[in-house]
Amino acid sequence: MEVLKERFKKKADEAATEIKGILKDHSNDVIGEVTLAQVYQGMRGITGLVSETSLLDAHEGIRFRGYSIPELQEKLPKAKGGSEPLPEGLFYLMLINELPSEEDANTITELLQRRSHVPNHVFDAIDALPIETHPMTMFVVGIMALQTESHFAKEYARGINKKDYWDPVFDDAMDLIARLPRIAAYIYRRKYKNNQHINPNGLLDWAGNFAHMLGFEDEGFMELMRLYMTIHADHEGGNVSAHTTHLVGSALSDPYLSFAAGMNGLAGPLHGLANQEVIKWIYELREKLNTEQPSKEQIAEYVKTTLSEGKVVPGYGHAVLRKTDPRFTAQMEFGKKHMPDDALVQTVWNIYETVPPILQSLGKIKNPWPNVDAHSGALLVHYGMMEYEYYTVLFGVSRALGVLASLCWDRALGQPIERPKSITTDLVKKWLNKEDNIWGD
Ligand code: HAX
Asked: Tell me, what's a Pfam family for it (predicted)?
């Protein structure tokens, strides 16, 4: 067994024993209560899931295995000459629950290189789609076509013992993470660069090689990809893409099926697609006002128009966060360091100064502050990646690191099929009328 797999299994066995002990003594302890508003309004704030890889605090933002983004930037291994963390290191941290050494991160880079072959039928499946197909649809089709390679699906068909599920799921997760940049780059080059594809460079790290296959050799863009792939990787378990991957995986659908399902959720405009919506919205604003640098007053007017048309301001608000997203701040710091005079980046910063008080004044929005998607597009445009419909694919490649590490943990801990209870309004009315025995069996 390879070293990484052995280390994971050891950690997972220890954690499983610990959880068993906790449940033995505390199974009936109550950790929350559920209100009718939560039942009707998106289960907001209901604690009902365990996801080991990261934890979100409403005010502080995300921590990956206890580490904030600035801490990751300081403590994770870097590429030679670079100053942003290697996403391979974050993956190691999420999977093994220990900070990786440089050697640990390099081991993952090599392991991913070895597993990165994508069979031709995957490219054929993508090629069968009309060129105008949205890149996220192409991405999901590519992942689904790759499902032919699932070790878990084959082992399950052969009758694998349930205590061994984690093993082929681990292999599928590693294979998928290794292959996704290839598929994603293929989609980009097919749709936007005349089908001129670029071979992988085995000397580069995972994110650097992805940048290379996309056609961006600029060291600044490679650094951006390392940061981008790190900060988008995970956001605890309840967000749509993570929760969907976990939910579908709980039916023992293999990691390809589960991750593709998660990506369909990421493709929604209230979730990952917001990164394309932000840039589209800024471009429409620039076009309407016929200026590359709208003033704060012009931005404020445009925000009011957006709201009056019954639309959301993309990139602002969050279901859990109640402060500026530290993923936004990390990108802002990157912008200050690499491109402080960029007109689009400055517009993003002016929007940041303009939007929150307007949203706050409406009184109903719980979080008027920017989320991760408010900033990412402007950095990509700076390096020449203009095709904003593609941006959510980048998010998806990164998100694989977190949700697939989590899926390994789900199977190693023997998490059961997910099946919460739903009710009808009729039942709610009976409950309010205090009728007996309403919850049934
Ligand atoms: N612009 C306008 N209205 C907004 C808003 C925004 N940015 N954010 C919230 N609202 C509205 C809601 O639509 C809701 O209106 P109604 O009562 O009329 O239905 C009201 O304010 C209360 O919503 P909330 O409780 O504050 O927010 P939710 O938890 O329901 O929704 C969302 C969280 C992120 C979906 C929401 O803030 C939103 O639509 N934001 C814009 C889209 C976006 O940026 N999405 C990306 C989120 C981060 C992410 O997942 N990235 O991938």
From this structure: Citrate_synt
